[in-house]
Amino acid sequence: MPSKKIPIAILGATGAVGQRMIQLLADHPWFEIAALTGSDRTVGRPYGELVRWVLDDAPPPEIARMIVQPSEQVADVALALSALPTDAAVAIEPLWAERVAVCSNASTYRMTPDVPLIIPEVNPGHLALLDHQRAERGWKGCLITNPNCSTIGIVMALKPLHDAFGVATVHAATLQAISGAGYPGVASLDILDNIVPNIANGGEEAKIETEPLKLLGEVSESRVREAQIGISAQVTRVPVIDGHTALLSIGFARKPTPEEAIAALADFAAPPEVRGLPSAPARPVIVRAEADRPQPRRDRDAGKGMSASVGRVRPCNLLDLRMVVLSHNTIRGAAGGALLNAELLASSGIVS
Ligand code: NAP
């Protein structure tokens, strides 16, 4: 635990993910918000006057009074959580990483070879890439990323199964919440009474097919050797506010029984260095025994939104096993994932 609170900036603080970051940082034991940034639309005005708060309650009064800073102006902080759009992140995140440790949600640098893509319970050892990153780029800070909001729940379920039985192939069909599109997001006339079988013009499927390979890979000689898993994804946007569901069929190198897979999932624990982090859930994966769970409305807040819930683990007629995975897209899949990464950087001594 740091001896005094570490100042932190939120980049893109007015958006859906930025607001979650503010909510999760209220009364944080290690960090305090020192700067909020936005676009030309909001810079120079008090946060509370311009933000369209989409969460329950309201921003804390001391945050509402803060003046929004330009995202290009690097603040005097040790850490930054980035909720910038992909295109804005291209130039702005490296600018900050020269001096500040940046934990990004944006997809921009997730697959860049020297940028760690991290789920602390899954691959904290990938932080080893930072020595190479800092040496090559001459940064005093650093840049790490968290995965796509559907990838994260899927990989939290795959990790214990991969370690125990060797995952070989995955078919993933997702049912993704509308908050994943930010605010104002999908038009009501498109999503009410409807399901849209496309997100980001195929970009979402590509992320689910590639990011798990890096996350489940091994660091060797300053790069990640990707896991050899064949993944096919189909995504849909559904009229749920928060909580992404993934329907998985999985083929294994060594086929487990459903009971063996359930035991591996239920026993999954974070490495010791991650267990005590303030935002780490007691159980990363929660196995539901009921025939009709997990469900977004009932299970998205499991572990304060940081656990993945898994249910309906059964034999599959095509591959070996099938199951349903659910995780909170703006908490574990975005703001909470970035915050847990920041806590990992602080506890590893990379940020002090
Ligand atoms: P959003 O609601 O559209 O918010 C975007 C934020 O970025 C706002 O604060 C906006 O500020 C700021 N911004 C926009 N253009 C900018 C520019 N040119 N320069 C500087 N700042 C700019 O988006 P979001 O849903 O919060 O998503 C943020 C990021 O997280 C995206 O990269 C997204 O892909 C990723 N992500 C989202 C989710 C999710 O569930 N929503 C999950 C995982 C990852 P103004 O309000 O001042 O315009």
What are the defining features of this structure?
6-stranded mixed β-sheet; Rossmann fold; binds NADP nicotinamide-adenine-dinucleotide phosphate; Dihydrodipicolinate Reductase, domain 2
Ligand roster? NADP nicotinamide-adenine-dinucleotide phosphate
What is the rounded Rg?
19 Å
CATH level 1 class label of the largest domain: Alpha Beta
- Counting helices, strands and paired strands, the structural category is alpha/beta
The count of DSSP E runs of length 2 or more, i.e. the number of strands, is 14
Number of structural domains: 2
Instruction: Calculate the terminal CA-CA distance, rounded to whole Å.
Output: 10 Å
The level of helicity is 25-40%
Runs in which pLDDT lies below 50 for 5 or more consecutive residues are none
Q: Which H/E pattern describes the elements?
A: EHEHHEEHEHEHEHHEEEEHHEHEEH
Helix segment tally: 12
Question: How is the main sheet built?
Answer: 6 strands, parallel
Rounded mean pLDDT score: 97
Specify the CATH homologous superfamily of the largest domain: Dihydrodipicolinate Reductase, domain 2
CATH topology of the largest domain: Dihydrodipicolinate Reductase, domain 2
User: Which of globular, elongated, flat, extended, rod-shaped describes the shape?
Assistant: globular
Strand order of the largest sheet: 3-2-1-4-5-6
